[in-house]
Design goal:
The chain is of the alpha+beta class. Helices cover 43% and strands 16% of the residues. It has 2 domains: 1-34, no CATH class; 45-86. The protein has one helix at 45-87, and strands at residues 7-11, 18-22, 27-32.
Length: 100
Amino acid sequence: MSRLASEIEATCPCCSAVLVVDLNLKRVVRYNEPERQDKPELGEADRILTEEAERREAAFQRSVADERTRGATLSKRFEEALQQASDEPVSRPERDFDLD
């Protein structure tokens, strides 16, 4: 595609994409994404999908196990906080006008 005189090309330093900017419109008119080097092969699609399904299932099982022990963990933390509160002496809270 031919470029107009008011268009300039700029290469993105991050992803090496080529941006075509129209100076009159002051916006990007075209974007050419570079070819990915880590593109998976079509023959590996079944393996990739299986690995992703296993990863999702493992994450789900971890969350189920965490949820099962959540009640016991919260109960234990409450008992520890209650014990700590009962060990501290009861004192009268300081107020601003008590400091005068």
